[in-house]
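Field reference: sequence -> structure
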Amino acid sequence: MTLEALASAGLPPFFFYDTITATTSHHSGRASSSRFHNAGGDDVVGGYSGGTDERRQSAEVAGQGRRKRRRQRTHKNKEDAENQRMTHIAVERNRRRQMNEHLAVLRSLMPDSYIQRGDQASIVGGAIDFVKELEQLLQSLEAQKRTLQQREAGKPESSPATADGGSRSSSSHSHGVDSPPFAQFFTFPQYGWRHAAAHNYPQPEDQLLPALADIEVTLIETHANVRILSPKRPHQLVKIVCGLQDLKLSILHLGLTTLDAMVLYSLSVKVEEGCHLATVDDIAAAIHRMLCLIQAEATAAAQ
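Structure field:
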């Protein structure tokens, strides 16, 4: 239909034109639309646009790619966690195997009387008792050896009064009689009595007189090993036990060896809650003060 015919039909005049728009996105597209303007200035938009659908498809493709990469990372993290778990299981299995082998060897080295049951705690506890018995036996043999050496050297039995005095003869020195008794059981004592001259240990600061005993304390966590070498005194062992209990030091093992006028105490103690002794020096100082009181009581009783 021509424009003249439309005009003769009484319709308002209008203009018709085509527009072509180009969209730029991940995929280039082309869209066309038609606009109709009537005489009143109103626009009527019609036609088809393909740019919106193409952009939507491009966004969906990009989102799928991101989801795939996220799945790959999650899968890799799961593999790493599984590898770590398997490694931990292998290490733990190897540790248990070695522990069982060591416990079996330890059990074979001990008499059956020291093992009440076959569990790990019983084996370890029996090993502790067995080691303490061996230590006591070694101390006893050391005392017997020293006595025999003194007899062979023709030297009178040692006493606290002649512990460090007098000259050393070549014969006694060759037999090692004048070496400090039980020297192998003392490494770095906090208080030196018989070992002070040989190792030049400092005397206690709170005492004007020389130390009354060799005292060495080693501490691991809440368990301490105590060695005391002192002259024999009346009721000394009972007073030491009571004094340690008052200090909240529970005695787990106790052994003693006598040599002439001396006695060697070997104790294993546990530091209980509420004990104010936190270091080896504190424990050694408390034991030395205890021995000073025992010595003072013995002196007063003798007078």
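Note: Confidence is low (pLDDT under 50) at residues 19-49, 160-175.
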